[in-house]
């Protein structure tokens, strides 16, 4: 029974805690309809609050309008509030020079993330299933991804959870049929215009027909084993990375003492430090960098997005070729305003006993003696509201997909030496309660 599988998955991977508020990405297709109905059925048992969200991509005209209306009506029938938003993916994709599929995914998660911040939502539930996992594995394999990419779709990443990842598309459709659930079909899924559709509609059926009818289960089971091995090696590599890499530079002699699987992962950690949130990086680039280790000082290799890897004075260094903004900080005094030239912002700060949805930053603190506005510093960390635990500001930027070129332009509010807010995201400790301070940042 699907509900039992979902409960087991939630428990095994700690996807949901009692009291959580969960936002479900609802496209209107069978997968997301199944997920929404299942979580609604388990709502009282799990003690959770549910919302749904639907992004109209503006691609399929009347069909997209149909999907949006269906999602709102289906949510309403279950007593769930549905948030909707419209955008024009083709125009956005053309403007940034990326595929519609990539831009659609970015805008969808950005929409979900904004809702989480505004309504203090804990988790985002997406309807990825076992077949999606198999398709992703094949795509990653053909793209030359590392073992990390061959580990499949994770059950949880940050606050994004996938409760039906262990369930096949066939079982999902059966669940909808057995529960008399209608759903809509995206006509673009029936074409082979996109790579994933070709894998879904042609490649996997051919493998199932000609070689192994149980292919989807086999490949996802193998992915689980790969993930377990990879997680173990990654843990060792990350420990070594923290030990020998300083300011994204490492001694060549130290690196050469380390076995290749760990060495390669250390280089990949250095690359992740530089790049703006790439979940996986082609092994070609790490191999290009590793080839430098046996060469003399002064050699280098150019990498995408104005990044260079080079050997200088016995060290491997990976860095941006463009200069980083100088550090700056200004003290804010309650009841006053200040111009921050590096950000092009005017900051106004005052005491308040009421919070409004006006885009300002609202903070509460017992002792607000020294309030600073500045740009990021190496080692900055905070506890983003609505999330569990502490996160490095660098990792927060990566999760939010903020380009590296823009990260120095994100305001950091510091109170008595602690990061209280990153942009508009407030630290859990400084969440506004009954009274506090209001900081308005106005771009001039």
Give a structural overview.
- The protein has 444 residues and is an alpha+beta fold.
- The chain has 14 helices and 21 strands.
- The chain has helices at residues 2-12, 30-46, 62-77, 89-96, 100-119, 130-143, 169-178, 195-210, 215-244, 252-256, 260-274, 283-290, 393-399, 404-407, and strands at 21-25, 49-56, 81-86, 123-125, 156-157, 160-161, 249-251, 300-303, 307-312, 315-320, 329-332, 337-340, 345-352, 361-363, 371-374, 381-382, 391-392, 412-415, 418-422, 425-426, 436-443.
- The strands form five sheets. It has a six-stranded mixed beta sheet, sandwiched between helices. Strands 11-15-18-19-20 form a five-stranded antiparallel beta sheet, with no helix packed on it.
- α1 crosses α2 (30-46), α2 (30-46) crosses α7 (169-178) and α6 (130-143) crosses α9.
- The longest helix has 30 residues, at 215-244.
- The protein is globular and about 60 Å long.
- The termini are far apart.
Topology:
Blueprint: H1 2-12, E1 21-25, H2 30-46, E2 49-56, H3 62-77, E3 81-86, H4 89-96, H5 100-119, E4 123-125, H6 130-143, E5 156-157, E6 160-161, H7 169-178, H8 195-210, H9 215-244, E7 249-251, H10 252-256, H11 260-274, H12 283-290, E8 300-303, E9 307-312, E10 315-320, E11 329-332, E12 337-340, E13 345-352, E14 361-363, E15 371-374, E16 381-382, E17 391-392, H13 393-399, H14 404-407, E18 412-415, E19 418-422, E20 425-426, E21 436-443
Parallel strand pairs: 1-2, 1-4, 2-3, 4-6
Antiparallel strand pairs: 5-6, 7-10, 8-9, 9-10, 11-15, 12-13, 13-21, 14-21, 15-18, 16-17, 18-19, 19-20
Helix pairs in contact: 1-2, 2-7, 4-5, 6-8, 6-9, 9-11, 11-12
């Amino acid at each position: 029974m699907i509900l039992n599988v979902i409960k087991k998955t939630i428990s095994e991977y700690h996807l949901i805690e009692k009291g959580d508020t969960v936002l479900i990405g609802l496209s209107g297709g069978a997968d997301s309809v199944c997920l929404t109905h299942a979580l609604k059925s388990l709502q009282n048992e799990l003690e959770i609050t549910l919302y749904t969200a639907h992004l109209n991509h503006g691609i399929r005209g009347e069909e997209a309008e149909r999907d949006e209306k269906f999602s709102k009506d289906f949510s309403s029938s279950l007593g769930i509030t549905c948030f909707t938003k419209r955008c024009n993916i083709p125009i956005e994709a053309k403007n940034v020079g990326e595929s519609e599929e990539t831009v659609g995914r970015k805008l969808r998660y950005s929409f979900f993330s904004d809702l989480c911040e505004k309504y203090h939502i804990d988790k985002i539930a997406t309807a990825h299933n076992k077949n999606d996992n198999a398709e992703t594995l094949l795509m990653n394999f053909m793209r030359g991804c590392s073992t990390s990419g061959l580990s499949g779709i994770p059950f949880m990443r940050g606050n994004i959870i996938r409760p039906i990842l262990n369930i096949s598309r066939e079982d999902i459709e059966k669940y909808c049929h057995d529960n008399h659930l209608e759903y809509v079909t995206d006509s673009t899924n029936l074409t082979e215009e996109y790579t994933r559709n070709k894998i879904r509609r042609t490649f996997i059926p051919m493998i199932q027909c000609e070689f192994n009818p149980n292919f989807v289960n086999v490949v996802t089971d193998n992915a689980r084993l790969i993930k377990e091995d990879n997680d173990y090696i990654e843990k060792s590599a990350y420990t070594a990375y923290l030990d020998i890499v300083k300011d994204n530079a490492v001694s060549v002699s130290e690196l050469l003492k380390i076995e290749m699987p760990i060495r390669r992962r250390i280089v990949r950690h250095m690359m992740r430090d530089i790049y703006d949130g790439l979940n996986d990086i082609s092994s070609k680039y790490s191999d290009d960098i590793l080839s430098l280790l046996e060469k003399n000082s002064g050699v280098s290799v150019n990498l995408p997005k104005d990044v260079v890897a080079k050997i200088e004075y016995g060290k491997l260094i990976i860095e941006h070729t463009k200069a980083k903004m100088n550090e700056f900080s200004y003290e804010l005094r309650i009841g006053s305003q200040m111009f921050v030239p590096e950000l092009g912002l005017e900051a106004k700060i005052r005491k308040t006993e009421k919070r409004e949805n006006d885009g300002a930053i609202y903070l509460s603190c017992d002792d607000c003696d020294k309030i600073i506005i500045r740009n990021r510093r190496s080692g900055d960390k905070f506890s983003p509201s609505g999330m569990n635990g502490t996160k490095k500001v660098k990792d927060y930027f990566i999760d939010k997909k903020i380009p590296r070129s823009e990260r120095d332009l994100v305001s950091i509010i510091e109170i008595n030496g602690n990061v209280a807010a990153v942009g508009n995201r407030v630290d859990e400790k400084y969440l506004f309660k009954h009274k506090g301070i209001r900081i308005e940042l106005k771009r001039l």
